[in-house]
Fold this protein.
Amino acid sequence: MNLQNQTQATLLAEIQRLNTEITTLQSDQDDRLQLALEVAHIGMWDWNMVTGRITWSRGHEELFGLVPGSFDGNYQRLSGVCIQTIAMG
């Protein structure tokens, strides 16, 4: 193996190591955020305006009186849930 191949192999190994580390850190951060949301009894949502899909954090559905896992990410459904929640007081 020549020096160039060794350097490429070393760089590739370092990139793979860093990618694994970033993935682990990202997962840990997601876990901490989820714990904070649960402890505070709040939810979080994200709206992808390109696809129109809305994603809720775990437990967000419960805050709106929905069965966990039942929200399909549809904007019209979100509007209906919000209006119904406001009407209930």
Q: What stands out?
A: The longest strand covers residues 45-47. The beta strands are 45-47, 54-56. The chain has a mean pLDDT of 85.
